């Protein structure tokens, strides 16, 4: 089947600054596709270009078979988008916001009431629909925006940092809704986030940094590429241990962080049985785990994704 | 079409719910009514009566009132266009722009929203008619309504064009201040603008309010039927290229002004989101 989104050599420069540097990817129908990257990576710029809201410097985007720069009205009908910033009319009630949306997208008149209640149910706002949006909490507003984005049954739903600024509990709820929705409607979901745990729900992840996609694969395979295990070791003399480790296990990748050594090894068994017994310096902490997406990012860029206050 | 209607209705709904704005927009016209109606009317009446013997019972207020209503239309339609900038600031404009509603329909919807609000304010001014002790024929009052709406559309399109080019409310207020007052004073709304120096005369003639005010005065007071000498004395002999313009021509000018401004605003909306 033809991919629902095709992005080819997409570029965007703001004055002297190149925010997106020629990226290339496809998204399959029904897929959850995640864009993961630190703040300023170019995620919003990319999403805004794909959604017809920003003219690219060069490149092409096709959505649902339509050219995003030449057939904007067709593309706009095919997509729903939850922008990074709030775009609700807070002076109106939730219901009024949804009704207006139906009219902008020409949802058939006889289906409107039914669909509005349907999306309100998905995001659990049925009882609050008559309230003005300004009385809503941050999480409720976000949920209402998601409901609104679904009203016209888009082929693709774009979510730009849908949970940024929300508390962990609300974030978890929102993802629950998104996944419930995915199951129900089988729409394609394109999301951006700088929270690692959130990217995990994607079928495939594109890791973006400084305007380029540095890796693109399923979360599992991305982590397999990093390979082996990650050991976080704290000792009373990290420098000495690091030096000793380099000579004893040349295959291990060692990085010094604040007060721990992050050691990447093909297998933790060997590390424990051979190396750990040799060191004389007292150990203060030890943590062995499978690689995370942050390790993936780290291995490509040498930096941590600043995951913000999670 | 439904997009136009939705955008238009949203602005109306918000206006009706916003009491302070409803009251606030009355303050300025009433102030001007007091100054020009109360303070100046004696002087103006003598002036006019001395110029012609054809008017016996002249009430200056009767002539100034349509001007004040036009001024209300000007201020309300331009200030209502501010909603475009507020929509940008509060993010709602993105919801509109990312929808399949065509850019020209967005511009028309926004324009109709602002002009309807202005029109309603203008009509509300009519409750002052008995208070002021002036009288108009009912048929003239009805006939002036479409002119008022058309003038509101022209001015709302102007406000919309300005608003579509700006990002901040402050910038808008600044531009409006340097624009609105000259537009009032150089329109004949408050005092005749005949016999102006040449450069000012040009400003008067490119000012759409001039044609709206002239048409409103002629239609509302029935002055179009007065003898030419009387019309001249009242400053109702608006000339363009050496001949007096008719009400029909004035309405045509307003339609042309509106079409040009809406086109420019549409282009500006198209550019705003590529
Ligand atoms: N309108 C703009 N004008 C100038 N620079 C911009 C504009 N929008 C974004 N940028 C810059 O482009 C880069 C990418 O931004 P953005 O796409 O918002 O990143 P992300 O969404 O991944 O955090 C940033 O450095 C940002 O400052
Ligand atoms: Mg962003």
TrEMBL record, chain A:
Chief location bin: membrane
Keyword DNA-binding: no
Subcellular location: Cell membrane
GO cellular component: plasma membrane
GO biological process: daunorubicin transport; doxorubicin transport
Topology versus the membrane: Peripheral membrane protein
Keyword S-adenosyl-L-methionine: no
PROSITE patterns: ABC_TRANSPORTER_1, ABC_TRANSPORTER_2
MF terms (GO), sorted A to Z: ATP binding; ATP hydrolysis activity
Domain ABC transporter: 5-235
Pfam families: ABC_tran (PF00005), DrrA1-3_C (PF13732)
Keyword entries, A-Z: ATP-binding, Cell membrane, Membrane, Nucleotide-binding, Translocase, Transport
NCBIfam families on file: drrA (TIGR01188)
Family to which the UniProt record says this protein belongs: Belongs to the ABC transporter superfamily. Drug exporter-1 (DrugE1) (TC 3.A.1.105) family.
Listed name of the protein: ABC-2 type transport system ATP-binding protein
Species whose genome carries this gene: Marinococcus luteus
Automatic annotation (TrEMBL), chain B:
Transmembrane segments: 21-40, 60-85, 106-129, 141-162, 174-193, 251-269
Topology within the bilayer: Multi-pass membrane protein
Alphabetical keyword list: Cell membrane, Membrane, Transmembrane, Transmembrane helix, Transport
GO CC terms in record: ATP-binding cassette (ABC) transporter complex
Principal location: membrane
Keyword check for NAD: no
Chain ranges of the ABC transmembrane type-2 domain: 20-272
Subcellular locations according to the entry: Cell membrane; Membrane
Listed GO MF terms: ABC-type transporter activity
UniProt family annotation: Belongs to the ABC-2 integral membrane protein family.
PANTHER family listed in its UniProt record: NODULATION PROTEIN J
Protein name: Transport permease protein
């Amino acid at each position: 089947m033809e991919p629902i989104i095709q992005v080819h050599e997409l570029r965007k420069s703001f004055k002297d600054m190149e925010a997106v540097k020629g990226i290339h990817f496809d998204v399959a129908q029904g897929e959850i596709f995640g864009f993961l990257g630190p703040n300023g990576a170019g995620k919003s710029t990319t999403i805004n270009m794909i959604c017809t809201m920003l003219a690219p410097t060069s490149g092409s985007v096709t959505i649902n078979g339509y050219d995003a720069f030449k057939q904007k009205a067709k593309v706009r009908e095919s997509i729903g988008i939850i922008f990074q910033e709030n775009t609700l009319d807070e002076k109106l009630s939730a219901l009024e916001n949804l009704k207006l949306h139906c009219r902008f997208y020409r949802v058939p008149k006889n289906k409107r009431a039914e669909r509005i209640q349907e999306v309100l149910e998905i995001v659990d706002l049925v009882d609050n629909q008559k309230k003005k949006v300004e009385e809503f909490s941050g999480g409720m507003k976000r949920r209402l925006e998601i409901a609104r984005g679904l009203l016209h049954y888009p082929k693709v739903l774009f979510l730009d940092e849908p949970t940024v600024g929300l508390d962990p509990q609300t974030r978890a709820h929102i993802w629950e809704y998104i996944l419930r929705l995915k199951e129900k409607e089988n729409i394609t979901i394109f999301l951006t986030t700088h929270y690692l745990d959130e990217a995990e729900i994607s079928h495939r992840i594109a890791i973006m940094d400084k305007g380029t996609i540095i890796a693109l694969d399923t979360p599992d395979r991305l982590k397999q590429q990093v390979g082996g295990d990650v050991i976080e070791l704290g000792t009373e003399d990290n420098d000495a241990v690091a030096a000793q480790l380099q000579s004893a296990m040349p295959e291990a990748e060692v990085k010094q962080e604040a007060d721990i050594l992050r050691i990447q090894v093909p297998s933790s068994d060997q590390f424990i049985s051979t190396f750990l017994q040799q060191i004389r310096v007292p150990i203060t902490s030890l943590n062995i785990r499978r690689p995370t997406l942050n390790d993936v990012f780290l291995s490509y860029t040498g930096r941590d994704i600043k995951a913000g206050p999670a | 079409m439904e997009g136009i209607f939705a955008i238009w209705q949203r602005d109306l709904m918000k206006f009706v719910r916003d009491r302070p704005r409803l009251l606030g927009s009355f303050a300025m016209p009433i102030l001007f009514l007091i100054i020009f109606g109360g303070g100046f009317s004696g002087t103006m009446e003598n002036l006019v009566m001395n110029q012609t013997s054809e008017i016996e019972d002249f009430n200056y207020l009767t002539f100034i009132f349509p001007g004040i209503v036009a001024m209300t239309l000007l201020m309300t339609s331009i200030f209502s266009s501010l909603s475009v900038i507020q929509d940008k600031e509060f993010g709602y404009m993105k919801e509109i722009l990312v929808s399949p509603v065509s850019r020209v329909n967005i511009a028309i919807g926004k324009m109709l929203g602002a002009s309807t609000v202005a029109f309603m304010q203008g009509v509300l001014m009519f409750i002052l008619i008995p208070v002021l002790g002036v009288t108009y024929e009912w048929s003239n009052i009805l006939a002036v309504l479409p002119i008022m709406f058309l003038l509101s559309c022209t001015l709302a399109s102007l406000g919309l064009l300005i608003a579509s080019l700006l990002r901040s409310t402050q910038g808008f207020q600044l531009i409006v201040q340097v624009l609105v007052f000259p537009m009032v004073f150089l329109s004949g709304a408050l005092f005749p603008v005949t016999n102006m120096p040449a450069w000012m005369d040009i400003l008067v003639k490119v000012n759409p309010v001039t044609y709206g005010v002239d048409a409103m005065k002629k239609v509302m007071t029935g002055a179009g039927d007065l003898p030419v000498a009387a019309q001249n004395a009242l400053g109702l002999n608006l000339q363009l290229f050496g001949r007096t313009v008719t009400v029909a021509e004035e309405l045509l000018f307003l339609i042309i002004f509106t079409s040009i401004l809406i086109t420019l605003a549409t282009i500006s909306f198209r550019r705003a989101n590529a």
